[in-house]
Specification:
The chain is of the alpha/beta class. The protein has one domain: 3-Layer(aba) Sandwich (Rossmann fold), CATH 3.40.50.1820. The protein is globular.
């Protein structure tokens, strides 16, 4: 029987931006090419705990807690536009002195990564975007705003919070059954997957290729994966 996957060891670090302090996780390995990971909305850098170990032999992997997430500072008054997030990313990249690095963005982090790469050409060597929605329906946006406007809930202890989450997710079904339901649901929502598109910009300072894999679902087009690399690398 295979051993269960283990979270990669990490150290915590901070960078200070003009708007506050950003926390990041450093999974090593120093001296290797840099890789920076960006999580999605309502998440945190620890989402990459079980992924970083697959890369840190070849890369120096870090994962950033975006503003208002994880152990990074909340912003008062609230300022959480994609431009704000991308501005934070730009400052973090400068403070960490990252050049020609791999940038991985998941979900909301993918949109932040795309905006950063577009406004800071030449800094990113490879760009990977995972499960990012390019365009949301008005119904979905309204539902997200409704969730965001709900009042928060306080818990007296960490154990109380953990118990609440266990009760919320306890359905009496095996994990395999839950995953099968997710697969079926995704099959319903994604009606059609396009062929891959590859774009080239021969006139850029560093010509490269952009591979884009799209899926069409009920909420609009979604980026399933984006891979970017400069020619010859």
């Amino acid at each position: 029987m295979a051993a269960p996957p283990q979270a990669a060891p990490h150290a915590s670090g901070f960078v200070t931006t003009r708007d506050g302090r950003l926390h990041y996780l450093d999974y090593g390995t120093a001296g290797k090419p840099a890789m920076l990971c960006l999580h999605g909305g309502a998440a945190h850098g620890h989402w990459f705990d079980f992924i970083a170990g697959g890369f840190n032999r070849a890369y120096h992997v870090r994962a950033l807690d975006q503003r208002g997430h994880g152990d990074s500072a909340w912003i008062t008054p609230p300022a959480y536009t994609y431009e704000d997030y991308a501005g934070d990313l730009a400052e973090a990249v400068e403070k960490l002195d990252l050049k020609d690095f791999v940038l991985i963005g998941h979900s909301m982090g993918g949109m932040v990564s795309l905006l950063y790469a577009a406004t800071h050409p030449g800094r990113v060597a490879q760009l990977v975007i995972v499960d990012t929605t390019m365009r949301m329906s008005e119904d979905r946006l309204a539902a997200m705003r409704e969730v965001g406007n709900r009042p928060g809930r306080d818990y007296g202890t960490l154990d109380e919070f953990v118990t609440r989450q266990k009760n919320y997710f306890a359905t009496g079904r095996r994990i395999s059954e839950r995953l099968e339901n997710v697969r079926i649901d995704m099959g319903r929502r994604i009606a059609r997957v396009s062929a891959d598109f590859v774009f080239m910009d021969e006139e850029a300072e560093r010509p490269g290729k952009l591979g884009l894999h799209l899926a069409e679902g009920k909420d609009g087009w979604r980026i399933v994966a984006v891979l970017f690399a400069y020619d010859g690398e």
